[in-house]
Amino acid sequence: MTTQPASRFQIYMSFALVYVFWGSTYLAIAIAVKNIPAALMTGVRFSIAGALMLLFCWWKKKKIRLTRYDVLRLFAIGLLLLSCGNTLLVWTEGFIPSGLASLFVAVVPIYIAVIEGLILRGDRVTGRGWIGILLGTLGLFLLLWSQLDSPSALKREQLFACGGVMLGALAWACGSILSRRSKLSIDPFTATGWEMVMAGGTNMLLAIIVGDFHHVVWARSGLLAIGYLIIFGSWVGFTAFIWLLEHVPTPKVATYAYVNPVVAVFLGFLILHEHLGRFEIAGMCVIVVAVALVTSSKLKSGAPAAEQEIEMCEREA
Predict the structure, then answer these.
(1) Quick one: three-class SS letters along 124-188?
(2) Fewer C-beta neighbours within 10 Å, C or N terminus of the chain?
(3) For the residues of 45-84, what is the DSSP string, one character each?
(4) Using CA atoms, how far apart are residues 249 and 99, in angstroms rounded to an integer?
């Protein structure tokens, strides 16, 4: 709900923050994961970001106390989004280019549309949405083709990593749907803070179990990358995202889903000198079109209302 009319400059600036900062998180992850293992890196990032966000909510006198229902739902959402979805993404970027990883994550809205419409009988896409789903499938095939077409050990390792990021994207989609369907007693900022704290603690425990502390190198570049993810990925980007949801129609806000991978591919090429082959470039173009079609397609309302189609995807990468 809009309390004050937003200026054109505020709207453009908020879109720029979401597009640039969320798109650049893939680059920051690629830098950090070179020296800091995935579970430890996400554990540190989300523990700090979540704790500081809750501290801010407490300072703003927001309700931060949880009911038993809140605890169970927030833990499940945090586990799907951040312990599974984000950690798998971080691990994947140790094997494949950050831009390529972002393209696999870009199909999350398509996963959501399929799960909501076909499995849960909730909001169902119509018309061009189905064209987008079919194109998204073709785009994934194109992204995987260069790995499927080569028998080398390196390509098999990268193919396995692609499977990991696809599994993580599926977990992210399930977490997003659960978030949409959960009626919590706290506001989105506080809910996000608790989810990050819970997932951060879970990831730190996982890091201890798998021995990440024995392999970590606390390099300056990795620490700066984590700081960037905390400040610009988890705080600034999310704040701009929530503000846009309150002032701009949701389908327009959802355009970040197909702008972010383009930003990620460009930054990966410009800064990390990542290279995408012709099949990957073709897959990128097809997926961007597919996500645009699915995101902008009309919905047939099912069980739950669809006021925020890609709710809380801020916790992304």
Answers:
(1) EECCHHHHHHHHHHHHHHHHHHHHHCCCCHHHHHHHHHHHHHHHHHHHHHHHHHHHHHCCCCCCH
(2) N
(3) HHHHHHHHHHHHHHHTT------HHHHHHHHHHHIIIIII
(4) 28
Backbone angles phi, psi at 62, to 5 degrees: -80, 155
- CA separation for the pair 277, 269 (Å, rounded): 12
Helices and strands (DSSP H and E) totals, the chain: 14, 2
* pTM of the predicted model over 0.85: yes
Residue with tokens 């599926």: 170
Handedness of CA 57, 224, 169, 102 (dihedral sign): positive
Phi and psi at residue 82, to the nearest 5°: -105, -40
What does the buried/exposed string (b/e) look like for 47-57 if buried means 16 or more CB atoms within 10 Å of the residue's CB? Answer: bbbbebbbeeb
Are 48 and 231 within 8 A, CB to CB? no
What distance lies between CA 179 and its chain's CA centroid? 13
108 exposure class (CB count in 10 Å sphere: 0-12, 13-18, 19+)? buried
CB of 258 within 8 A of CB of 291? yes
pLDDT tens track for 86-131:
999 999 999 999 999 999 998 888 888 888 777 776 667 677 788 8
* 49 HSE (CA, 13 A, CB side): 33
